[in-house]
Amino acid sequence: MRVINTSELRNNMKKYLDLAADEKIVIQRGRNETFVLTKEEYLESDEDLRRAISAEELLVGVEADIREAFRKRHNA
Questions:
Q1: E strands of the chain, at which residues?
Q2: pTM
């Protein structure tokens, strides 16, 4: 982790963007403001995501479960 000020960032933007690919860069602006520069990572789809159900499918299943629970409660 490196801590720099805004002037250093402005004067060496490419350097700090390149460094942010591998480490956290903390930017101090004045006494009370701090920012963090990091590389954003995007999640890749995995098998669980491909098998996920839609919101509509979830609602159909929940509705069926609620109806079953209601039926059991009134038949008891």
A1: 2-5, 25-29, 33-37
A2: 0.53
